[in-house]
Amino acid sequence: MLSDKVKSHTRTAYNNIAEAIPNFVRRKEQNYLIAEIAKTFAGSYSKERRIVVCQAGTGTGKSLAYCLGALPLALAQGKKICISTATVALQEQLVNKDLPLLMRHSGLNFKFGLVKGRQRYVCLSKLELLAGEAGGEQQALFESKPADGDIKILQRLYKAYFEGQWDGEVDSVPEPVPEYLWQQIASDKHSCNRNLPAHRQCPFHKSRENLDSWDVLIINHSLLMADLELGGGVILPDPDSMYYVLDEAHHLPQVARDFSAASSQLKGSIDALNKLEKLAHKLAQELATDKAAIIAGDLSETIAAQTSGIGHLQSFCDNNLQLFNNEDQRHRFVGGVLPDALVTLAENLKKASAEAIKHLNKLQQMLMEAIKDGDLKSHKAEPLVAETGYALQRLEGQYATWLMLAKPVPERGAPQARWIDKLDAKRDDFMICASPIEIGFLLDELLWSKAAGVALMSATLMALGSFEHYRHQVGLRSDDGTRFINLPSPFNYQENATLVIPKMALEPSDDGFGDLLNKVIPELLDEQQASLVLFTSYRQMEAVAESLRRFKRLPVLVQGEAPRQDLIDQHKQRIDAGKPSILFGTSSFSEGMDLPGDYLTNLIITRLPFSVPTSPVDQAHAEYVQSKGGNPFLQLTVPDAAKKLVQACGRLLRNEQDYGTITILDRRLVSKRYGSSLLESLPPYRRHIEY
Q1: 493-689 and 261-436 share a CATH fold
Q2: Burial class (CB in 10 A: 0-12, 13-18, 19+), 356
Q3: pLDDT band at residue 8, thresholds of 50, 70 and 90?
Q4: pLDDT tens, 162-190?
Q5: Cα 35 to Cα 69: distance, rounded to the nearest angstrom
Q6: Three-state SS at 279
Q7: Per CATH, the architecture of 261-436 is what?
Q8: Domain ranges of the chain
């Protein structure tokens, strides 16, 4: 139960902020949310299941509400708050605006900081090795032979760090670094050892020095999953010592599913094992003990077993090329069922890779002891430490793949999606992949059952007026003590926005729909100052943009032709100068695009955001629903489209003074049976439907 002291601190903090901020609006929805989060975390509703799921409309003031709902209680109990987001933009808002404001004016005494994953930081030891003169040790660390330009980039980064011009974080690199190159120099748990002098002052460890003193930790959903997968309390504090606030929680199911997937290239894996074979001999030679030689020999045996098994997988693919004779060059195993021969191979590879990890870990421990005892000089030790860390990472990635492939198809519950992609790169290769379809059970096991309390927050958690779809996605139930709250936005939708569904001659499935857009969209842009047009297809967006530029001479700012922020800046500059401006974008512009006031008054949505199940995971999920007698379109596609449509329409009104028109050019809203459900899921805009 909430103590009177905590209640008093919460009220005082809220009143202090209300008095300090000019024109602060006290909203009943915000007050209610503060109270519900505090009571849920305090165990007022359930002592076993302190979880609240809240859909709070735009303008509710969610971030202030969950901070004030959780922080006074957490401070009183000696617990921490972990705020997890899906986007960098929200993290920056919390770190640079919301939490500093709360600290200045609330009267609450707390510390906060942004926690990033280890791979967001450079490993100075690796950077120094790879930026040096090319040699055998350097070549062993690279996945493939580096280009001259790669070495020069690394040399400039090394110089920038030691001249104090760079802090070692990927988000602040002084020049663009290709993803494959960053992976070569990023910190990792195996080779980054604080006991070694060269690693004690590395950017990652320096970033962790203040973590224990922070009361509020800001992270992203991927880092959350990384910690939970390790059992919790490894990267972050223990789950039972923290209240979690998962903002932008509608992204959590997809992030969790992606994080739990695994894949391995066949020829790439064999190359990595060949490098590991050389490393095993090198370690045995440098450690120069009988024990090291025996372990290295055992490791060589497991490498041979893995190489043989992967070779058999390669033969299966080479002998069945007809399976990949399709547009995607992909073969998905129906129902996740592998041929018996592949199941046996996966079992053997899982065992062999697990043994290899065990042997390499022993050699790594011996290496660290030799360094600690002074038996190995640093100029020899550092390359070995880095190379061993790389090898362990690769082995663990392979093990994760074989582990997932070897799991039996469950008699109950969703199977895994399993597939093989044929790759056309510098040389032919195959990528073997596995992913869970549903991850609710995983979140229940890793987080819901362990955390001191969890609040899941978003403006779009409900689909078709219900939490049921989301509840199933994340593994929560209506009868397990979890609280579900729907708080409407304080905006006056009836007065401020009009939803228009014009009479269109064709539906989006018609071949002539693109030509119709070329005719209709210019009419909707005429005499409008600030427009955003959302598409579901890059190809269609580019075709319409080209047509408008060529035949209508309209200045269109198109996603992909410049960085997103540059497009937004250009758009705002045109509006500020009294000129009309038109933004074209796809799904990523449907969320997180903040154009308040006069920067957006005319929103056009070309078609309903139905996702075509082109990914093998989505295809497998639809297949599973159908096998259970369900309707994948109604159970998966329509609820997903409903949430995306709400997000897209939400671009128009960003504060209580905003106004404008939303036009949806998809007649299926009125011509199909499911259309009425999609319409009802939208806010109560003033409607104008042409019949």
Answers
A1: no
A2: buried
A3: very high
A4: 889 998 998 889 998 988 889 888 888 87
A5: 6
A6: helix
A7: Up-down Bundle (1.20)
A8: 4-110+215-257+452-487, 118-207, 261-436, 493-689
Residue 595 — very low, low, confident or very high, per pLDDT cuts 50/70/90?
A: very high
pLDDT digits (tens, 9 = 90+) for 198-221: 666 788 888 888 888 999 999 999
In three-state secondary structure terms, 618 is: helix
CA 620 to CA 334: how far, in whole Å? Answer: 7
| Encoded tokens for 458 | 């978003």
Task: Decide: helix, strand or coil at residue 687.
Answer: strand
Nearest-angstrom CA–CA distance, 446 and 50: 15
Q: What percent of the chain has pLDDT over 90?
A: 74
Region label for 575, one of left (φ > 0), alpha (ψ between -120 and 50) or beta (otherwise) = alpha
How much of the chain is helix, strand and coil, in % rounded to 5? 55, 15, 30
Enumerate residues 6+ apart whose C-beta is below 8 A from 546: none
Pairing type for strands 602-605 and 530-534 reads parallel
Q: Which strands form 483-487's sheet, in the order they lie side by side?
A: 112-114, 216-220, 80-85, 242-246, 453-458, 51-56, 483-487
Q: Determine the Cα angle at 36 with ends 33 and 40, to 5°.
A: 140
Q: How far apart are CA 440 and CA 446, in angstroms?
A: 10
| C-alpha torsion sign, points 166, 171, 173, 177 | positive
Structure tokens at 51: 């979880």
| Gap between the Cα atoms of 357 and 302, Å rounded | 10
- Residue 193 pLDDT more than 70? no
Cβ(677)–Cβ(646) below 8 Å: no
How far is 534 from 585, CA to CA, in rounded Å? 5
Token pair for 343? 């199941």
Residue pair 251/86 in contact (Cβ under 8 Å)? The answer is yes
Backbone angle region of 306, left / alpha / beta, with phi > 0 → left and psi within -120 to 50 → alpha:
alpha
- E strands, 459-523, where? 483-487, 497-501
Element holding 244 (H helix, E strand): strand 242-246
Q: How many helices (H) and strands (E) does the chain have?
A: 27, 18
Look up the CATH superfamily of 493-689. Answer: P-loop containing nucleotide triphosphate hydrolases (3.40.50.300)
- Give the bridge partners for 463, in sequence order: 466
- Average pLDDT across the chain, whole number: 91
Query: DSSP labels for 426-469?
Result: SSEEEEEEEEES--HHHHIIIIITT-SEEEEEES---BTTBSHH
Per-residue pLDDT, averaged over 128-140, amounts to 61
Output the six-digit token pair for 5: 């002291």
Q: Which fold has domain 4-110+215-257+452-487?
A: Rossmann fold (3.40.50)
Please state whether 414 falls in left (phi above 0), alpha (psi between -120 and 50) or beta.
beta
Give the C-alpha distances (Å, rounded to integers) separating 407 from 344, 446, 527: 11, 19, 61
552: left (phi over 0), alpha (psi -120 to 50) or beta: alpha
For residue 582, give every residue at least 6 positions away whose Cβ sits within 8 Å of its Cβ, in sequence order, or none: 525, 531, 532, 533, 548, 554, 555, 556, 557
Question: DSSP secondary-structure letter at 506?
Answer: S
Letter string b/e over residues 149-183, b meaning 16 or more CB atoms within 10 A of that residue's CB: ebbebbebbbebbeeeebebebeebeeebeeebbe
